[in-house]
Amino acid sequence: MADLKLSNVDKSYGGFAALTDISLDVADGEFIVLVGPSGCGKSTLLRSIAGLERISSGDIVLGGRHLAHVPTRDRNVAMVFQSYALFPHLTVAENIGFGLKIRKTDKATADSKISHAADLLGLGALTGRYPRELSGGQRQRVAMGRAIVRDPQVFLFDEPLSNLDAKLRVQMRTEIKALRQRLGITSVYVTHDQDEAMTLADRIVVLNGGRIEQIGTPMELYDQPVNMFVAGFMGSPPMNFIPARAVDGVLTTASGPVSGAKFASDTQTDVMLGIRPEALSFTEGGPLSGEVEVVEPQGAQTLVIVRLADGTLVYASAEKHARQLPGERVQMGFDWAEAHLFDSDSGQRIEPLKTEGLQ
Amino acid sequence: MAERYLTIALRFFIIGLGVLWSAFPIYMVVSSSFKTHIDIFAVPSKFLFTPTLDNYRQLLSDWPEFLDGLLNSLIITTGATLLTAIVSLLAGYAYSRYQSRMLTASAFFMILVRMLPPLVVTIPLFPIINWLELNDTHAILIVLYAAFFVSLSTWILKTFIDQIPRELEEAAEVEGASLMQRLIKIILPLSVHGMVAACVFVVVFSWNEYMFALIFTSSAAKTAPLVLAEISGSLEGVQWGVLFAAATLQLAPILIFVLLVQKYIVTGLTAGAVKG
Q1: N or C, fewer C-beta in 10 Å, chain A?
Q2: Above 0.85 for ipTM, yes or no?
Q3: φ, ψ for residue A188 (rounded to 5)?
Q4: Full strand arrangement of the beta sheet holding A203-208
Q5: Domains in chain B, please, with CATH?
Q6: How far, in Å, are B74, B250, B264 from residue B207 at the CA level?
Q7: For chain A, how far is it from start to end, CA to CA, in angstroms?
Q8: Strand bridging mode A302-308 / A154-158
Q9: How far apart are the first and last CA of chain B?
Q10: Minimal C-alpha gap between B194 and chain A (Å)
Q11: How far apart are CA A102 and CA A79, in angstroms?
Q12: Of A75, A81, A89, the CB nearest to B171
């Protein structure tokens, strides 16, 4: 195991900048999740760490070793691919032991490592099978086995669960978490699924357009998003953005003024009020009012979708048996401690000067 | 229902004609090799006869060089096949995995060379080969035969390697495999069908080739087809039985080989037709 340090990593293809100024410190044993929409550069970053992509500038240091001129095969990293990339002509045991054989590990040691890894992943009875004879989840485990058997310095996961069905994905997610708690391996994990990111990560890195938007623990990202992109990306259903105007430090939405918070701006500024669905409550006389559009029961809770006066759709979590009905006029309130404010133009977070009380 | 039976019957009839067309000459050669001189020329042809090995005995006593010819053919065929296999695996890999203007241009020339009638290169080759002192050696035929088939085999192998996901190689690379190890442990086993399909062409061609063997060998590297020709052009008049025996011996190994690998040939030639 080792720590991993990326400094000012750039990667461009021709004129297209795939990664721009990526700096990231991964502590020994830490589990980092790279998350972002398709094409944000998260897989490119992972592949750059593995050496499968050559970076244009910057530095990658793994356990004190500069990797810039180290070929992939000497980097001592392990990678789990989205497609699993199992060798179809080799058995489970041969797949897991491929790296050991290449590195000429003696047979007794290799065999014991392979059987240990197979047992750890519940593949003990399948070692003689070929990949085509395995289910998706079992193939996924073989790919994991191939990674852990070599004791690499860092694990790289490239959307390892996205080819599994929803139920299996949740199960494998739990297994990966249990495995990492047991093995304590430095890991970099790429996903586009923010649920996966929240459950697995020690820290999450949100990427967009090849740049890092924010790095933080799952709760930091959830509670203190630095901009609208991060705020909208983390959480499901996503955060509501309500257009508002700050006039002389007081906020006004289409429903009227929202008291309880003061802002630094003494001029007029267009802002976005960001409130998560679960932070909204149906309160008589609340500052946001609108008409219920759709009610979506989800089992544990019910989502009530409200159209505000200016046409903005707002998602609000109500209790299991919501009383609201489509077409009904409702008023909603929120706690300033759970609300966020962003600059409409830049999307950056704005901190209020002071907040007081419930609405 | 009746219509369906008719279709099936028609299908069998056409297949039957095809089989007859290709198998009949083989049957004539093989059966005649076991017949006496009188039986060979019996009209109508005899389907029931007393088989004899006399023709084979006579072949071995009169034409001992036929066995040397078979051995030379075996050496040259094996050599040409191995050379083609190695070269086309490497070239097919390069064409499949890398892109550059040079590669595209070289691919064009590779196909262009294939368009030349082989006879055109023979005459200029003759002085060169003399100068290299490669006349009447196994090596020269191995190189020539391989050269004819490298383009086709490379193309077949490129198609196969195209279908091997790049991620498999990347996974092997992460696991510590060098380019050579990836070729041997991943690419080779996964393209073996294409390899066999490509090799069949070389094997059949090298085993039967006559013209180049005639021009570039005289005694030490003389191949079986040349000896066959000598038997049929013998000064004492053609001994048909002996000729058929020799033809049978020449035919048998290649026939068995093709039958053994036929399932590879079918998958090999249709590779890339449908996306897997």
Answers
A1: N
A2: no
A3: -120, 125
A4: A77-80, A154-158, A187-191, A31-35, A203-208, A211-216
A5: 64-275 (1.10.3720.10)
A6: 7, 8, 19
A7: 50
A8: unpaired
A9: 35
A10: 15
A11: 16
A12: A81
Nearest CA distance, A62 vs chain B (angstrom): 15
Task: Read off the pLDDT of residues A191-236 as tens digits, 9 standing for 90 and up.
Answer: 998 889 999 999 999 999 999 999 999 999 999 999 999 999 988 8
Q: Chain B contacts of A75, Cβ < 8 Å? A: 174
Residue with tokens 């003990």: A124
Nearest to A152 by CA among A60, A82, A7, A49: A49
pTM for this entry: 0.81
| Angle, vertex CA A324, rays to CA A322 and CA A329, nearest 5 | 155
For tokens 């297209």, the residue is A16
* Type of residue found at A110: A
Considering only CB atoms, B173 lies closest to which of A72, A83, A146, namely: A72
Q: Which residues in chain A touch residue B177, judged by CB atoms under 8 angstroms apart? A: 73, 98, 102
* Residue tagged 């497609």 (tokens): A83
Residue in chain A lying closest to B181 (CA): A102
Within 8 A by CB and 6+ apart from B77, the residues are B145, B202, B203, B206, B207
Dihedral angle computed from the Cα positions of residues A49, A71, B89 and B106, in that order, rounded to the nearest 10 degrees: 90
Closest of B201, B65, B222 to residue B138, by C-alpha: B222
Percent of chain A at pLDDT > 90 equals 56
Instruction: State both tokens at B114.
Output: 């294939």
Question: Beta partners for A279?
Answer: none
Tokens of A336: 């300033």
Q: Which of residues 90-119 of A touch B (CB under 8 A)?
A: 98-99, 102-103
Cis amide linkage into residue A237, ω under 30° from 0? yes
